[in-house]
Structures are given as C-alpha cells and as structure tokens.
C-alpha cells in the first residue's frame, strides 16, 4: 500500500489504521485464548505493522498516522473485557509511537462510539447525550482534522468521537 501511494500520488502524507474486530458479548473467563489472540492481531498488531511499513515514507513528508480505535476502550461494558483490553493496547501503542516518531510523524487515534451499521440501534441512541449514533462522516471528520495542518501540534491524542458517552452519558 505504501509503494502504491508513492507511485500513484508521489508520496504518503497520511496513513489511517481502520481495522478492528469484536467478540460476542461474553465474560472474559469464558472466551478461548484464540479469541483474545484474534483481537490482539487485528486491533493492535495490524496497526503496528502498518506503522512500520509507512513510517519511512511518512517521515520524509512529516506525515501523520491516525488509528480508529473505540470508546469501548475507556467506557467499559460487561462482556467486552478482552475487546476493551485490545483497544486499550492500541491506544497505548498510539501514544508510544507518538513519542517515538516525533517530531517527523504525528500519531493519534479516534475513539468512536456505536456507529450506524445498516439499521439504527435505537436502544443505544437513548443513552447518548447527542441522541444519535456515530456516523462515518463523524469519524472521517475527526481523522481529517487530526491529519491536517490544523492539528500540526497535536500528537499522542485519543480523541473521543462518541456523542458524549465518555462524558458520563452511558
């Protein structure tokens, strides 16, 4: 993907990590190790490997990395312990990479809440202060901001895009 960006567009300015998996809501002690391994591989390791691949090209252009994590890392739900742990690991990776790659590369992440996927989930809308689910536009706007020159002094941030959920809304 890095070579494609360099060949097609003359370089790489922004890399967005947008991969994630969840497990069925189930107690952590009842889930097999393979489920935790799967979540760590997709939710954490993929972001690390993508950053490794992109860093040389991003460093050359003083670029930006932004990872799409989850508000579920910091607003915990019963039955989602392993997911929360993997997303917390991803936030820690973001903050560590921000320190290691500065000042040439800025590294941030966004923490969306429940998103519109097909049909609306009315039960979840009622617990959000903004009374609607997160949209792709909400997430894209936050990623675009963190990746822009307007955020040139922002690195190591985990930005909630959660309609107020992390403010105590649910």
Secondary-structure map:
Elements: H1 2-9, E1 14-17, H2 33-61, E2 64-68, H3 81-101, E3 106-112, H4 122-125, H5 136-147, E4 158-161
Parallel strand pairs: 1-2, 2-3, 3-4
What is the element string, with H for helices and E for strands? Answer: HEHEHEHHE
List low-confidence stretches: none
Alpha-carbon distance between the termini? 38 Å
Report the mean per-residue pLDDT as an integer.
92
Rg (CA only): 17 Å
Shape: globular
Kindly give the count of domains.
1
Structural class: alpha/beta
- Helix percentage range: 40-55%
- CATH H level, superfamily name: NAD(P)-binding Rossmann-like Domain
The tally of strands reads 4
At the first level of CATH, the class is Alpha Beta
Describe the structure.
- This protein has 170 residues and is an alpha/beta fold.
- The protein contains five helices and four strands.
- Strand 2, helix 3 and strand 3 form a beta-alpha-beta unit.
- Helix 2 runs parallel beside helix 3.
- The longest helix is centred in the first third of the chain and has 29 residues.
- The mean pLDDT is 92.
């Amino acid at each position: 993907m890095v070579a494609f960006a360099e060949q097609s567009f003359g370089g790489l300015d922004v890399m967005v990590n947008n991969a994630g998996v969840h497990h069925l809501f189930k107690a952590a002690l009842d889930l097999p190790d393979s489920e935790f391994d799967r979540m760590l591989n997709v939710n954490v390791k993929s972001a690390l490997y993508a950053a490794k691949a992109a860093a040389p090209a991003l460093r050359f252009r003083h670029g930006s990395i932004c990872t799409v994590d989850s508000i579920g890392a910091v607003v915990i739900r019963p039955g989602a312990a392993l997911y929360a742990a993997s997303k917390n690991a991803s936030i820690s990776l973001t903050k560590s990479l921000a320190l290691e790659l500065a000042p040439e590369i800025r590294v941030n992440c966004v923490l969306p809440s429940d998103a519109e996927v097909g049909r609306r989930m009315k039960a979840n809308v009622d617990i959000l202060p903004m009374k609607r689910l997160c949209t792709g536009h909400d997430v894209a706007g936050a990623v675009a901001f963190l990746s822009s020159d307007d955020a040139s002094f922002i690195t190591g941030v985990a930005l909630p895009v959660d309609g107020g959920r992390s403010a105590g809304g649910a």
